[in-house]
Write a structure and sequence with these properties.
single chain; 124 residues; 3-stranded antiparallel β-sheet
Length: 124
């Protein structure tokens, strides 16, 4: 009987060590930026570039206003208000915009970026 208890305890301890080891595995935080291209100075085409655990992917989003309205379901003004800045051409504002888009798509559309094709988020 005593031997059986010791084996159970040893098994539990080994399991808890494995679980602790698994929970301590660190993943690198996602990096994301928006590249902005302009044609004729009027429209702004966005491309989302993300990097997660060393894997890089790019997604063409389309025109800024169309993407905000059709995909995010928000006006550009709402997006600016949500990220706290209108200066998306500056690095800090750009990162805020990119992470806001990633977070919003994950939460509202349950998007898994690993399985997407580069054109699937386009608002055209």
């Amino acid at each position: 009987m005593m031997k059986h208890r010791i084996e159970k305890t040893a098994f539990r301890n080994a399991n808890s060590k494995n679980i602790n080891r698994l929970t301590k595995i660190k993943t690198k935080p996602m990096k994301a930026i928006i590249k902005i291209n302009s044609n004729y100075g009027f429209d702004h085409n966005w491309t989302l570039h993300i990097e997660l655990n060393g894997e890089r992917k790019s997604f063409y989003l389309g025109q800024d206003v169309k993407f905000c309205n059709r995909v995010l379901g928000m006006t550009p003004r709402d997006v600016v208000q949500a990220i706290g800045t209108a200066e998306i051409d500056k690095p800090m504002g750009n990162k805020k915009l990119a992470m806001f888009i990633v977070k919003t798509l994950k939460e509202t559309h349950l998007i898994n970026f690993k399985n997407l094709q580069p054109w699937e988020l386009c608002a055209e």
